Amino acid sequence: MKLEEIKSLILIWGMISKEAIEQLKVEFLYHKGLYILVPEMRPYLLGLAVSKNLKNSRIRHIYATDNMLGYLFYKNKIKKTLFFYKEITPSGAVGICGSLYACLLSSLHNVPIKLLKGGIESNPLDKDASTINGNLFINDPGLAIEAKDELVPWEILK
Amino acid sequence: MLSPLCFPVRLEEDNIFVLDETRLPFEERYIKVNTLKGALRVLGEMKTRAFGQVLLFFYTCVLHKDIDEVASTFKETRPTFDFDRLAETLKKYAREKEDLREVVNRIVKEFEKNRIKRAKKLAGLLPAQANVLTICNLNGELIYIYQALKEMGKSACFFVCETRPYLQGTRLTLWELNRANIPVRILCDNQAAILMKEGAVNCVIVGSDRSNKRGDIINKIGTYSLAILAKYFHIPFYALIQFPKDIEIEEINIEQRQEREVFMWIEKRDSWPRAIYPAFDITPKGFISDWIDISGKFEE
Questions:
Q1: Strand B15-19 to strand B30-33: parallel, antiparallel, or no bridges (unpaired)?
Q2: Residues 6+ away with beta carbon under 8 Å from A39
Q3: How far is residue A13's CA from residue A133's CA, in Å, rounded to a whole number?
Q4: pLDDT tens digits, residue range B164-194?
Q5: Residues of B with CB below 8 A from A69's CB?
Q6: What is the DSSP pairing of strand B280-283 with strand B237-241?
Q7: CB-based contact B174 A65, cutoff 8 Å
Q8: Interface contact B256-A3, CB threshold 8 A
Q9: What local confidence, expressed as pLDDT, does residue B296 receive?
Q10: How does strand A135-136 pair with strand A150-153?
Q11: What is the CA angle A101-A102-A103, rounded to 5?
């Protein structure tokens, strides 16, 4: 699909919940040109699981790698971010690896972030950048930065 | 040679040998090319890019002779890169009736000399302990930067974004730095923000496929994200540029590649979801701290 064909995107970050899928189904009835943007969400490739759930619910979506998010914000394609967090703390919301990246890019482009409780993730094959789909790409896996849950401070989520 | 990626394409008599970057780090294999069609195929299939595509362009001109045809077909295959500028340089020399092969050899040598000079210039700007975040692959230039830093009594560690979907960061940059015994770590592209927040990196270095005189650049997808995040965290962002032109950056066609390539290295499933793949992005000048030009001229 070409970028020019896309008007509006809703970005999903984290594991989408069943409740959210039901809400999105309703939203899609009223917005014909709308697509859900499903990023890859490395290292876990969580995007593939989210995409499967959306496909089963017949929700239109587009897949992209995580590093494409900035350009999609820059091109004003993303209108809203749904951040599926794991935990709420006094300092902010905690989400999967890359949550700060996704939310900060959203915030810096003045795109509203909606906080939603995340669904249950399956056990991922990949734990860091040393592998993809279980295949090792480097001789020394210890060179990969550990993927951890990330805190997104409230000032970014405002 | 420090890394095969410093000179990924070479000319031997009437054959061009192209390092197949898509096979790295598993296999160091060269593809023999001796026609324009063959050159376009390896370019289109991402067998080479960055400095490799510059060398491929020059050597294809030596074999094919028709510089304009090489430029226009290369541009069609990779619209984001400025092959016209390379053609202009070559034609300027060709008019003086010099042998094209000798001209190309001289230009390539000069280019390489200037890459080393550019690395030294940038090293001078970096802190005593440079923790450098980078993306994609700079064809050996990070090794030049590291050497320059060492000569200045500085040290460095490189933090490389894996650069999905082709994984140039993992397969090329990590590989070449690691085999040169240079401190390096690899991260998922989306870990850039947390590393910046935690203070693990103190500068960002990127290349550029295109740049204009205003200071905007086009580079591998993901570059813009690093730039805007770096600005937020007050981290200097350096762009290595070559031949900036008086152009509107937004008018340049950003290459959009095939959807299936977004799923590179992932095992084929029943069907892939629809996908988008803009291969490059635009970083406006406001997010760039300094530009280091290949001509050696330093612009602020």
A1: antiparallel
A2: A11, A12, A13, A47, A63, A64, A65, A66, A68, A69, A102, B190
A3: 20
A4: 999 999 999 999 999 999 999 999 999 999 9
A5: 225
A6: unpaired
A7: no
A8: yes
A9: 57
A10: unpaired
A11: 95
Q: Cβ of A26: how many Cβ atoms within 10 Å?
A: 8
Q: Which residue has the tokens 């762009």?
A: B239
Considering only residues 82 to 141 of chain B, which have any Cβ-Cβ distance to chain A shorter than 8 Å? Answer: 135
pTM of the model: 0.95
B174 in contact with A, Cβ within 8 Å: yes
Ranking A131-145, B90-104, B142-156, B225-239 by mean pLDDT, the lowest is B90-104
Using the structure block, give the residue that is written with the tokens 């032109």: B245
In which band, very low, low, confident or very high, does the pLDDT at B295 lie, cut at 50, 70 and 90? confident
Task: Give just the sign of the alpha carbon dihedral B226, B227, B233, B237.
Answer: positive
Helix, strand, coil % (nearest 5) of chain A?
35, 30, 35
Q: What angle do CA A66, A69, A70 make, to 5 degrees?
A: 125
- What domains are defined for chain B? 4-110 (1.20.120.420), 114-293 (3.40.50.10470)
Tell if the CB–CB gap between A105 and B228 is shorter than 8 Å.
Answer: yes
Longest Cα–Cα distance of chain B, Å, equals: 59
Residues 36 through 95 of chain A touching chain B, CB cutoff 8 Å = 38-43, 45, 48, 51, 55, 61-71, 74
Cα–Cα distance for residue pair B44/B40, rounded to 1 Å: 6
Taking only the tens place, the pLDDT of each residue in B46-104 is: 999 999 999 999 999 999 999 999 999 999 999 999 999 999 989 888 777 778 999 99
Predicted pLDDT at B299:
45
